Amino acid sequence: MAQDIILSPPGSAVTVRKRDRRLNARAKLRIPVKFITASDVEGHGMTMNVSTSGVHFQTETRLRHGDQLVCYFKFLGRFEGQVARVSGDNVAFAFDISEAKRDRMADQITWLINKDRLGLEEERMAERVAASGDLTVTCEDGRTLSCNVMDMSLTGVAVKTKDERPFIGESVTCGIRKGTVARWLDGGFAVEFTL
Questions:
Q1: Which of 64, 101, 110, 190 has its CB surrounded by the most CB atoms within 10 Å?
Q2: φ and ψ at 113, to 5 degrees?
Q3: DSSP secondary structure letters along 133-192
Q4: Can you give the pLDDT at residue 194?
Q5: What gap in Å lies between CA 179 and CA 96, rounded to an integer?
Q6: Which of 23, 28, 60, 26 is nearest to 41 (CA)?
Q7: 67: DSSP letter
């Protein structure tokens, strides 16, 4: 049996272990996932661990080895790839992503692991100011959401809505500005504008 190598730094919020056969270290994170297969079967589940090459999650939806999926992970966004292994309700999903996206994901995983312990705030590219007003957000599937603006900046907007929120990573149009849903908020979501 391969021996574990401890990768987490002293005082880290989690212990990350890497076995010799793994290409990327896995972090124990429990975050919601929604997915859709190539044959339009929708499902949801919860991650058990995450790495920059793939994720292990549990779902009651029946999946098979080789199934192509589009997955939306809370805090991480949208990923395409395929099912690498299935064992009961446990699924190993391999990402099909670029090196640049893999690097961004590594940063996001590190932030998720340490944000509560260290009291970290998300880095912002531009200062946000409190704002109010109505805003119509149009989703990829054509749905329109009635929203109220909470705050905004040159690079994005945070809104509240009573409608069903779009997926993290989904492209949306906020009024006349296009953007991507960056994260969910309590009763709403935040959009990063396409610059």
A1: 190
A2: -65, -40
A3: -EEEEE-TTS-EEEEEEEEE-SSEEEEEESSPPPPTT-EEEETTEEEEEEEEETTEEEEE
A4: 80
A5: 22
A6: 60
A7: -
CA distance linking residue 47 with residue 72, whole number of Å: 11
The residue type of 159 is: V
The owner of tokens 């987490």 is 8
Predicted model pTM: 0.52
Would you tell me how many other CB atoms lie within 10 Å of the CB of residue 12?
15
Question: Could you tell me which of 34, 98, 39 has the C-alpha nearest to residue 67?
Answer: 39
- Alpha-carbon distance of 128 to 175, in angstroms, equals 18
Nearest Cα residue to 109 out of 11, 12, 6:
12
Q: For 144-164, how does the pLDDT look when each residue is reduced to its tens digit (9 = 90+)?
A: 999 999 888 878 899 999 999
